[in-house]
Amino acid sequence: MNRLAIAIPPHFDFAQCLRFLDRNAEESLHRVEGARFLKMLPLHSGPALFAVQGDDSVLEVELLAGDPAALPAIGDYVREMLDLERDMLPFYEKMKSDAVMGSLVHRFDGLRIIRLPDLFEALSWTIIGQQINLAFAYRLKARLVERCGTVLEHDGQSYHAFPTPEAVLGLDAQVLRDMQFSRQKADYLLSLAETMGSGKLSRSALEALPFAASRARLIALRGIGPWSADYVLMKCLGATEAFPIADVGLHNALRIQLGMDRKPTPAEIRSLAAGWRGWEAYCTFFLWQSLL
DNA sequence: CTCCAGGTCCATA
DNA sequence: TATGGACATGGA
Hints:
By secondary structure, the chain is an alpha+beta fold. Helix content is about 45%, strand content about 15%. The chain has 15 helices and 7 strands. It has a 5-stranded antiparallel β-sheet with strand order 1-5-4-3-2, covered by helices on one side. Strands 6-7 form a two-stranded antiparallel ribbon. Strand 3 (about 35-45) and strand 4 (about 45-55) form a beta hairpin. Helix 5 (about 120-130) packs antiparallel against helix 9 and helix 11 packs across helix 12.
């Protein structure tokens, strides 16, 4: 059998998630095709391509290429990627009367944080995305992925997976410069690849730490500051209390939601977010979605 | 042309 | 401990 069904929990809406996945046409690590998305994973048993679609009651994962024995692992991946294990009831209960979030949780009911389970990918993506527009960031990522990520051809399409630290470590800094990475970003990326490739940092090691300690460990990395650390805690490690408070997208979304003619100050944001305790990551994600 | 993008590091005081 | 500038490129 090459299909797997996953029951849909309360406050999950596949269409909302698909809208986020479809936010940028230059995304190189998955493809949205009609009402489903396709993604390739480089598993032990070889590359596996799968498609996910959903209705009101069930998500269906279909293996399109690869070893059928990998299906359970793919199901686990999809559950994590779509944050399906999260009990969202406390979030909706807490936010329904919030000044900023009240309307957004209604508008985006069922959206989940779309996660990046691969720590190296998540960290690399924050480095790539720092201080440049998202369109350019997607382009840089695509160049890196096409250069040294794994690829699977299927049905006339190429499906890429993010490179391993080892693959990136094999690149000369000049190759990254030629892809239009800044000198700093090339340096940060190679440094990160060395750190992770040599086992000095791993997702499992981070997960063993309390929130504050894992955040400090991330910030100790070259090229990873508070924004990147919080982004990774939110998108990779599933920490709902992570809060990338300096994010310009968050600022713009708040400005628009509040009808302001300027961005809110840090103090104003802290005040607005006073009632978000424990769910800052979800609030941030919903605010990002409001910008699409 | 100028300013700003899903920031971070480093030099200077 | 705090602030200013550099970084690469592209879109508004």
